[in-house]
Amino acid sequence: MNRYDGVKVLLTGAASGIGRATASRLTGEGAAVYGVDLSAAGLAETAAAIGGPGTFASHVADVTDEPAVIAAVRDAAAALGGIDVLVNVAGIHKTTPLGALTVDDLMRLFQVNLVGTALFCREAAPHLPDGTGAIVNVASLSAVQGNPYMSAYSASKGAVLSFSLSLAAELSQRRVRVLSVSPGSTDTPLTRSPDMFPEGVDPTYFGRLAAPFGAARPDQIAAVIAYAGSSDAAYQTGVDLRVDGGSNM
Ligand SMILES: NC(=O)c1ccc[n+]([C@@H]2O[C@H](COP(=O)([O-])OP(=O)(O)OC[C@H]3O[C@@H](n4cnc5c(N)ncnc54)[C@H](O)[C@@H]3O)[C@@H](O)[C@H]2O)c1
Question: In this predicted structure, what is the pLDDT of residue 193?
């Protein structure tokens, strides 16, 4: 299946987890992927893991740094010769029990998860071709499902959902599609990080999040992101695609 032959993709969060799996999946389908991330080392690992037939180029940038985002999108468009699809995967998580919630944590979660996504959408949208362009924003099942100790993270992802929905309405005039993809718990460095289990958090709480199918593999999320950005989803916009292993049955 080479749905992405000749398709130019700008992808954030490409240095790890779901982003790396997405780079792999899209290049495997023929895409030219321009991967942006904070981590130069992680981007190099992603580049080494790419098997083609597509191509992968790396760009180090912080998605919360407005001038850096403007430069990243400009450089992506120049390097790729345009941008057909934007995929926003970069994101952070922090488990924040209410009593320990800080303004810094709230601001940082919203800076990376919402502001970073919004800036890339703003800068990339003018490049996307009318009629075929697409944006895929990674939100989270937490945006629509109550999860203990995740109120701040969940709110930032709820914001990504709402942002994507209204952006879909705005860009529908150009027939540029905007979808969000909401993964359930996925086995990546993010879910293995100490930020998931700060002091005072009941370590069994993950049990309450378990999906009937267990945790997802990153490639299972990447497969749905690839679908959402492809012409197979040409008649879908303004919807959220949940990839949750049966969490909502
Ligand atoms: N893993 C899960 O269970 C899960 C579930 C639902 C949603 N998500 C979302 O999926 C996305 C990817 O998560 P993952 O599990 O692959 O995590 P990950 O930590 O493996 O990857 C996240 C990537 O984002 C990058 N990043 C973080 N802050 C950045 C910044 N300011 N600028 C540029 N890059 C930055 C990191 O360097 C990293 O490469 C995130 O948006 C996350 O919220 C993950």
Answer: 83
